[in-house]
Inverse folding.
């Protein structure tokens, strides 16, 4: 006998999270794009959580939020926590079945280079991967003045379409073998027909701290973007998004082990 519950179990559950907060236009644009791929449930930080990485601050009881897109009501919860912790709440408390996919974004600003571990957007997907859930991070390159905003001057239409495209690919084909997270970055001004490229996460120190002298001494007062073409790898995410203006698709892994050869280990020092 077919029941409502059995039918629902066959519908993929897509959990949507971000680091800009549940009121961000970016997450709403992504939710709208994902509607046709399955049941979309939003579990997002109550407030701005940019640059929180995979930290686990906050908590409490998830608060149901009225969330409606094109007349369709979505299950949505706001949690006073970081994006990574919101993912744990989503999987362990809010979801009525195992998620088929967790999507993080759309973020105000690109998440590229060796600063990806700072990103709350990417941190959420790493947490999802640690729980065995396929994960996709989607970020839109914008001017730094919008990084902590909910500005409606940013057009997320193309980024949402790209996020949908790769979400559909994951649902149909699974994750690329060896990858735990797919990190997608869309250049400013991109369209749905902009070329895309497989990239590596650059070792480039893309986000550089601004140090200023004050009456009490030196202080870090923010960050700026540093783009030095001579330091960029040809296949890097930074080059793809910021110089070549194509969509960057990077495969990330939870395995942080350096690929040091046995010969190099022996050269460096024998173990005891």
């Amino acid at each position: 006998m077919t029941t409502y519950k059995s039918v629902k179990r066959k519908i993929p559950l897509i959990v949507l999270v971000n680091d800009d907060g549940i009121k961000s236009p970016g997450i709403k644009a992504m939710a709208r794009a994902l509607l046709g791929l399955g049941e979309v449930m939003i579990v997002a930080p109550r407030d701005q959580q940019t640059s929180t990485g995979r930290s686990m601050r906050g908590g409490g009881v998830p608060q149901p939020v009225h969330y409606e897109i094109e007349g369709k009501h979505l299950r949505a919860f706001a949690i006073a926590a970081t994006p990574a912790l919101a993912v744990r709440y989503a999987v362990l408390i809010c979801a009525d079945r195992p998620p088929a996919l967790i999507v993080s974004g759309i973020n105000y600003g690109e998440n590229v280079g060796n600063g990806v571990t700072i990103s709350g957007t990417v941190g959420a997907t790493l947490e999802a991967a640690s729980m065995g859930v396929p994960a996709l991070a989607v970020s839109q390159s914008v001017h730094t003045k919008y990084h902590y905003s909910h500005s409606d001057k940013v057009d997320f239409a193309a980024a949402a379409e790209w996020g949908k495209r790769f979400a559909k690919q994951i649902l149909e084909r699974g994750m690329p073998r060896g990858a735990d997270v797919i990190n997608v970055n869309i250049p400013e001004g991109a369209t749905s027909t902009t070329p895309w490229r497989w990239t590596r996460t650059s070792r480039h120190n893309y986000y550089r701290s601004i140090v200023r002298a004050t009456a009490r001494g030196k202080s870090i007062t923010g960050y700026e973007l540093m783009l030095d073409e001579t330091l960029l790898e040809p296949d890097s995410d930074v080059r793809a998004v910021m110089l070549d203006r194509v969509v960057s698709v990077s495969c990330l892994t939870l395995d942080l082990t350096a690929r040091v050869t046995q010969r190099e280990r022996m050269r460096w020092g024998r173990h005891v």
User: Anything to note?
Assistant: The chain has one domain: 10-202+234-268. The domain at 10-202+234-268 is CATH 3.40.1210.10 (Stationary-phase Survival Protein Sure Homolog; Chain: A,). Helices lie at 4-10, 25-34, 83-94, 120-130, 157-173, 237-243, 262-268. The first strand starts at residue 13 and ends at 17.
